[in-house]
Design brief:
By secondary structure, this protein is α+β, with helices and mostly antiparallel strands. It has one domain. The protein is built from 1 helix and 5 strands; from the N terminus they run αβββββ. It has one helix spanning about 1-35; strands at about 45, 55, 60-70, 75-80, 100. The protein has a 5-stranded antiparallel beta sheet, with helices on one face. The longest helix is centred in the first third of the chain and has 33 residues, at about 1-35. The radius of gyration is 19 Å and the shape is elongated. The termini are far apart.
């Protein structure tokens, strides 16, 4: 009887850990993205020829690092989205990006 309780407790702890890992990684990466720093817990999935825009995927979220060449100069910034995200990189950024004049 005591063995069954130990097994059930271990299963509950394992499920909680599996649920909390994506929450933990998203919270850290979202704080980094707000500071326009590269997120840690993501995997690079694509790079585009618009100046170097890069797409990253994490556990349940997507990060886009915008590097866009414009007439005025160079725009950059990070954005984070929950999955499923039906936006395409070609749609452009949602937030206003920082501009660096050449």
């Amino acid at each position: 009887m005591l063995n069954k309780h130990k097994i059930n407790i271990k299963k509950v702890i394992l499920v909680l850990i599996i649920i909390l890992i994506p929450v933990f990684t998203y919270s850290i990466d979202s704080k980094l993205v707000l500071q326009d720093k590269k997120p840690i817990f993501v995997v690079k999935t694509g790079m585009y020829k618009d100046g170097g825009t890069t797409e990253y995927w994490g556990l349940g979220y997507q990060v886009i690092k915008w590097n866009m060449l414009t007439i005025d100069g160079y725009k950059f910034g990070y954005e984070i989205f929950h999955v499923p995200n039906f936006r395409d990189v070609n749609d452009g950024p949602v937030k206003k990006l920082k501009l660096i004049k050449d």
